[in-house]
Amino acid sequence: MQNSINENLESREARAEKVSCLVWLSVIIATYAFFILGFDETVSAELVSNISILVSIMAPAFAFLAVLIHKGYYSPSIKYINTFLQVTLVSAAIAFDNIAQGPAYALSSMPPMAYALVPMITAFRLQPLLGLFAGTVAGVEFLLIYLFLISPDADLVAQIPSLGLDVTMMKVVILVALGVASALAARSLKNYFINYGKSLEIQTRMKHNFGRFVSPEIVERINDSEDGIIESDIQEAAILFGDIRGFTAFTSQNDAKVTTKLLNDFFEIVCKCVEEEGGMVNKFIGDGYMALFGVYSDSSSSCEAAARAAIRIREESNQLLSPLGLSAGSAANFGEIITGEVGSTGRCEFTAIGQPVNLAARLESLNSVLGTSILVSQTFMQKIPADKFNLQSKGDQSIKGLSSPVSVYEITG
């Protein structure tokens, strides 16, 4: 988990550095074009030459770093080179202001304030050491420029006390402090995103694992519930029961490992067919299953979807079951059912209950009596398009638990 989070952060870091290089490259080119077009005739040729040399060095440097990252040659050292170039670009701007306008202007104009932007921006790159590096380099470069390049004379300092060494040292301390603050902010943000990533990955893993035991729809329903409880509800749905014909005899002739593998392979087909048709597999019962269609969704086409799923399960499991002398059988019904949690406070399951569910289960058992593979009730039959399915009446059948016979139909294709 930690490795995947670190890889994700490194990938984001590389993209951020590339964007940073391209932004600074654009700023250099745009500023230089503006300078040449607007001030070329008002400044000395020496200043123009110096700025042109700086641009000819800095622009290719940022472009080269961006290309390296784009080609996949990113390494942690690039972010320090990038930051160093950013700080040095600000220092160069201060130096040129000194040449063009003098020490007073150079120390009080915009470029010295731009120093602070570099360590502040690095905080969003989630690199604590980088923020500290940016603040330290900014402070050191500013101090060196002041001492060895600008060095205002005593008379100028007397006129403008803010140009003195003591004030400059205060500015240096502030720049370094900004680097420290940036490092702390970056560390806090990085820890937040790492913890958030871990939490999200754990939640995703739990959701996946939970989904192995209950349907994805129920997982979503539980997540959307404030107290994690699915309230009981009455809704119309199609109910599909199914199992493997001849499974009892098969288990007596094979060991547990072979039996379990067969069940898992069969249920893999069942889940795929049911879910692709918009239903949910509610539970597995030995070699059987119960699936619901139209629960917490539009039930207008739930019977058609259930019929398609039943046919697909029969056809797609044939290659698995037929060589073993087995086959898939199922039965479906439609009606109002009660859905919700059933169980104790410590252990419960989502289920569906009601007369339509009981009838679907009874019809499924009737397959072995009638020698059929897919049986449906008259209510279910009336909900599916007659031109899309081949239906054959099996007459009125007595159903255990019901006082009167039920009209039953077989779906042959």
Structure, explained:
Helix content is 63%, strand content 16%. The protein is an alpha+beta fold and 413 residues long. Strands 1, 2, 3, 4, 5, 6, 7 and 8 form an eight-stranded mixed beta sheet that branches. Helix 3 (76-101) runs antiparallel to helix 5. It is rod-shaped and about 115 Å long. It starts with a helix and ends with a strand.
Please give the alpha-carbon distance between the first and last residues. 48 Å
The total of helices stands at 15
Percent in strands: 15-25%
Q: What would the principal axes of the Cα set say about the shape? A: rod-shaped
Mean pLDDT: 84
How is the biggest beta sheet arranged? 8 strands, mixed
Helices and strands: which structural class? alpha+beta
Give the % helix: 55-70%
Radius of gyration computed on alpha carbons: 37 Å
Contiguous low-pLDDT stretches (5 residues minimum) are none
Number of strands: 8
Oligomer: single chain
Key terms:
413 residues; alpha+beta; eight-stranded mixed beta sheet; 15 helices; 16% strand; rod-shaped
Offer a quick outline of the entry.
This protein has 413 residues and is α+β, with helices and mostly antiparallel strands. It contains 15 helices and 8 strands.
